[in-house]
Amino acid sequence: MTTEMQSGRARPEAIKAVPVRHPGRWLAIAVLAVLAAMFVHLLVTNDRFNWRFIFVSIGDGKRGVMFTGPVLEGLRGTILLTALAMFIGVGLGIVVAIMRLSTNPVLSWVAWFYTWVFRAVPRLVLAILFGNLGILWDRIGFGLPFDRQIGNLFGIHDLNAQIFSIKATDLLSGFVAGVLALGLSEAAYMAEIVRAGIQSVDPGQAEAASALGMSRGRVLRRVVLPQAMRVIVPPTGNETIAMVKDTSLVAFVPVTYELFFQLQAISSRTFIVLPVLVAACLWYLILCSVLMVVQFFVERHFGRGYGATDRAKLRLRAVAAEQGAVLPAEEGSRQ
Description:
- It is a multi-pass membrane protein.
- The chain is mainly alpha-helical.
- It has one domain (48-303): MetI-like fold, CATH 1.10.3720.10.
- The protein is 69% helix and 3% strand.
- The chain has 15 helices and 2 strands.
- The chain has helices spanning 2-8, 23-45, 51-56, 69-101, 105-120, 123-131, 147-153, 168-171, 174-199, 203-211, 216-246, 259-270, 274-302, 308-323, 331-334; strands spanning 139-143, 162-167.
- The longest helix is centred in the first third of the chain and has 33 residues, at 69-101.
- It is flat and about 110 Å long.
């Protein structure tokens, strides 16, 4: 009897598991390998890529098109355009998002109108429009509106109540117009991203912070925004990468201090098109790759602590299972 009980409690034999075969997976790998080999063959054997023109020299005593002085200057301009446009976009986007969430209907309506307009108009159209705003005014200034009309009512002709003004062509240069077009457009998208991030935070936390005596601004700055950043950062990284590529649109303003404009100028002078476009693709690939690495570390910084409890529980259960111990069931599993 004792022997039968012992045999009944004996551990079962080890399961001889047979690995699941994945013929479709191997077929897909084979097809991808052939396609990759065909792509490498195209890059290596087709002389029309003209790799020497791209990397080594575009003429006697000159560097390759990727590393010539004007292209490097345009590269710096592209980076500056991206930084300034994102600075305006993020800063103004936060303000518009807070206005949209305000209980004041006027602020909320103005924020909605701004978002509607700048999301509806394509960035290329905005860039060209801002580049031609100088047509509307000779000078742009700050002062009393309708000053001439008011002066005429009182018999004062040519009344000028402008406190400060500057020539429109000096203020709205191509670079400034491009930055404003990209930055104001980006602010509309960032407003929606920030609004979604703020709404993802449990309202009870803001209520609890207010109950402790914190002001609304401090609650937003110290409680809501730090938690919302985990939701805001990934789409903001995507927007930054998209902005790098969209800076090429200001070449139509035109902004000469820009990468794609400089490469197009070289293509027009040398009548060599494809290698110049390949050089442009390589520079944009490099810039976007760097930003993706930065995005990874920023996401990891703001995602600290989230999911750590679940990972710790899984690790603890794995250790317990290896040692034959049994952990108590979670509250959710008891029901």
